[in-house]
Amino acid sequence: MIKIRIPATSANIGPGFDSIGLAVNLYNYVTMEEHDGLIIESMDGVEVPTDETNLIYSTAKHLYELCGVTFRGLKIGQINQIPFARGLGSSSACIIGGLKGANRLMGNPVPDAELVNIAARIEGHPDNTAPALMGGLVTSVFAGSRVYYVKQEIKNDLKFVALIPDFELKTSEARAVLPDAIPRADGVFNLSRAALMSVSLYSGNYQNLRVAAEDRIHQPYRLKLIQGGAEAMEACYNRGAYAAFISGAGPTIMAIVSTEIPDFSENIAKSLVELGLDGWRVHTMEIDNVGTIIELA
Ligand code: HSE
Questions:
Q1: pTM of the model
Q2: Rounded CA gap, 180 and 103, in Å?
Q3: I want to staple 33 with a disulfide (CB 3.0 to 4.6 A). Which of 1, 18, 166, 292 is the partner?
């Protein structure tokens, strides 16, 4: 049996829609072994699909088929600390868990450089799957069927504080509200900020992050689906965050904060209560520069 640890991810980071993401130290764990037939167990009481629609199972099976290796079936155990449908990369964690696990059980025939492509083809974009696999900050272009990317390790002088609402938002719903076309000015607005976000985060020019996190192609539309989201973002800035943005497709709001503001999380929790967002949860994290690892083999 093997045990895989996969990090949560925060995609887009404001303007980098479908292209920039980073990994944080909140984890899902998957145990996996070959088995005649299918057994899927939740090891922490979180309800998961236990049939062939399970994303870890279907992804693992897909990789066996791609490699031309006979697939007997799998026994899978899941610990899901990454909440579902909150913009923290829970489905990408399943995809990466399935791919890394299946690859290991087959004797690692596929290098990570190819797993990143396979994962993006399954998910449709690489901004969660690539950092879930490799950790750190990953800037990617998905061109055709291949991901061109740079992974950067981020210094440990930042906290990533997730404000997690008490409601889900499905990615399909959050993508359906986006316009098909954008004005040229909005394109320029976003591409300049996406480039600035990527280089400022890895180079430590954190004073740029507030401007770099601005976005005109998804957040204005998605904030209408996230009751209290705009107010929560504003509160992050009032409490001293470098940046605040919708994590992935939402509804989580992510703040990037200096470690030199030790009481940020406590204070933002108070702000949420003042805003009437009592059901929201504050979860404080660090960058994960490692990505997915096999803990037990
Ligand atoms: N880039 C994706 C989106 C992330 O914003 O829709 C969620 O899968």
A1: 0.96
A2: 37
A3: 1
Q: Is the peptide bond before 111 cis (omega within 30 degrees of 0)?
A: no
Distance of alpha carbon 176 from alpha carbon 192, whole angstroms: 25
CA 35 to centroid of ligand 1, rounded, Å: 34
pLDDT for position 196 = 98
CATH number at 125 reads 3.30.230.10
Name the average pLDDT for the chain.
97
Strand residues in 97-145 grouped as ranges (E): 137-143
Beta bridge mates, 161: 255, 284
CATH number of the structural domain spanning residue 267: 3.30.70.890
Residue 260 CA to residue 149 CA, distance in Å, equals 31
Residue list, ligand 1 pocket, CB within 6 Å: 11-12, 17-18, 125, 127-128, 171, 174-175, 218, 248-249
Which amino acid belongs to residue 235?
A
pLDDT digits (tens, 9 = 90+) for 175-195: 999 999 999 999 999 999 999
What residues pair up with 7 in beta bridges, in sequence order?
Answer: 27
The per-residue pLDDT for range 223-266, each reduced to its tens digit, is 999 999 999 999 999 999 999 999 999 999 999 999 999 999 99
pLDDT at 88 over 80: yes
Query: Which pLDDT value is given to residue 297?
Result: 67
Domain with 238 in it: 158-285
Q: Separation of 71 CA from ligand 1 center, angstroms?
A: 31
Claim to verify: residue 216 and residue 231 sit in the same structural domain: yes
Query: Quick check: 127 pLDDT over 90?
Result: yes
Does one domain contain both 140 and 171?
Answer: no
- Same domain flag for 163 and 149: no
Assess whether 22 and 127 both reside in one domain. yes
268 in the same domain as 192: yes
Q: Please give the number of the atom of ligand 1 that sits closest to the Cα of 125.
A: 1
Give the tokens for residue 83. Answer: 């909440």
* 172 and 252 co-located in one domain: yes
Query: Are 102 and 248 within one domain?
Result: no
